[in-house]
Each structure stands twice: as C-alpha cells, then as structure tokens.
Amino acid sequence: MIDLCNVLSVSENIPVQAHWDPIENTANNLHWATEEKFNRSKAQWQEPVDMTWEQWLKLFNPGPAQPLKHYSTTDFQVFLPPSTTNVGDVWDLDPERILPFLRQFHPGATTNLRHGQNGVKACLRAISSEYADIVFRIHARFILDKSIGAYFRPAQFAGHLIINRDTGTICEWTLSLPNRNSNVDMIAFRSCDIGFVPRMELCSLSETQPESIAWETAITAEEARKKFESALYKFTEIEWTPIEEAVELAKASNRPIHAVLLFGILDDESC
C-alpha cells in the first residue's frame, strides 16, 4: 500500500494556463445561428428574452474566464487519495473542490449532473521511488445563461498529476477535453446540438517537469480509462457480442434479435 495523502508537503505557487478554442462545427449550427433563426427561436420562448444576436454568438464561444490563474499546492490536494492505495485503485474526488479549476474556464461551471451521481474520479496510474502519476476523469457542465436554458456540456475532462515524492512538489498537471470529432453538447431554447471544440485545456506552467520516468509499477492509460468507465457506468459490465456472432446465436437458438440503434456513444456525457 502506498501513502500519498500528505505527499504535497511544499507550499508553492502554481500558475495554470487556460485554453478554450471556439466551437469549430456542430451538427445543427446552434452555436452560429443566423440572425433570422435566432429571432425565430427567441420569439417561441415562453418568457421574454433580453438578448441580442451578437450576445448569442458570444455566448457559445466565450473563451476562458481567466487565461492565467495562480493556485497554491494545497488546491491540488483534492486529487490525492484519502487513504493508502495501490496502483490501479480508483477513488472519488470532492466535486466542490474541483470547481475552482473548472471556473477558470467559466464561472457557470457545475459538477451537478442530471442523475445526482458523482462524476469525478481519480486513479493511481503509476509509481516509482521518486514519482507518482495520478490520472483523473471529471464530468461537468457549464451554465452559460440560466434564463434561456443555455448549457455547454463537455463529453468529459481527463487529466493527470505527476508528483515528485521526494521533494513534495508538483511536476505536471493537465486537464483537457478529449480531442475527437464530437466532444461537446449545447442546449438553448430547448434545442440541442453536438459539436467539436479543438482545444479546451488547463495546464500547469511548472518548471520541474521530468523528461522521462522509469515507473516501477504502472497500468496503461487504456487500463485506467476502463477502470473509470467501470466506476462510472454500470452497463460496462455487460458482455457485448459482435453482431456476426449474435446472428449465429439467434439462428442456433431460434430466437429473435432485439436491436437498438444509438447515435453517439454511451460512456461519456456527449450524445
């Protein structure tokens, strides 16, 4: 068992830089609607809306609230395990203590998800005599304008924290949106859309980043991803069968196939 509870023993000032690119594309162009479409949606809303088209365009492309923010070492204590742990163990993080990081993007950040579950997890991915690598996964959404029900929901945030166990200092910390062709949902005026943001990331500007580390015990990034999925989604315990095998089983057992067609993926918060 490894004790990392109090490993961050040195008080430091950690600058963190924020990047938030504009939405590059969406399925229904909700983020860049024409003025005519915006006025039509505005007129259909139940309550009067005090918003111009120009404000609407800025709403879904806000950029980071604080491009550069300074944190203390104690702020990163939230990512440490609450007790002794082993490589591969997963634990819950405190959602409220994660919010200061997310609000560097936008003050409307919240970790309150639709079904009340805790969507903030961490895992000890690797350890050496000198370093520890903690990876984490965060599910959150951003309330852009509550009056019109405007929300921005990233698929997930993933990141890691590398700690020097000898010096009690932070070597590297990152938190970012997955870079894939659809990674955010948008909601406004009861309309939904799915889109792509090239980069939405927080990263530390520490000068103590190690060039290479010889990990003594480690799991791969893919293994850590599967552990997060198992902790967050019960359905991942289902044993899935390829369609070709399912057809043969149906023929052999003389039973029908109940097929469900999905748009998107199940194992994060995007459509």
Mind explaining what this structure looks like?
This protein is α+β, with helices and mostly antiparallel strands and 271 residues long. Helices cover 18% and strands 30% of the residues. It contains 5 helices and 15 strands. The model has no long low-confidence stretch (mean pLDDT 87).
DSSP E strands, number = 15
- Gyration radius from CA atoms, angstroms: 22 Å
Q: Unreliable runs, pLDDT <50, ≥5 residues?
A: none
> What is the end-to-end distance?
39 Å
In terms of structural class, how would the helical and strand content be classed? alpha+beta
How many H/I helical runs? 5
* Element order: H for helix, E for strand: EEHHEEHEEEEEEEEEEEHH
Shape: flat
Overall residue-averaged pLDDT value: 87
Percent in helix = 10-25%
Largest sheet features: 9 strands, antiparallel
Strand fraction? 25-35%
Summarize the structure.
The chain is α+β, with helices and mostly antiparallel strands and 271 residues long. It is built from five helices and 15 strands.
Which SSEs are present, and which pair or pack?
Blueprint (H helix, E strand, L loop, with lengths): L12 E8 L4 E2 L8 H10 L8 H7 L8 E5 L17 E3 L2 H8 L6 E2 L9 E8 L3 E8 L2 E5 L4 E5 L2 E8 L4 E8 L7 E5 L2 E6 L3 E5 L12 E2 L2 H12 L10 H11 L18
Antiparallel strand pairs: 1-3, 1-14, 2-13, 4-6, 5-8, 6-7, 6-15, 7-10, 8-9, 9-12, 10-11, 11-14, 12-13
What labels describe this entry?
271 residues, alpha+beta, nine-stranded antiparallel sheet, six-stranded antiparallel sheet, 5 helices, 15 strands, flat
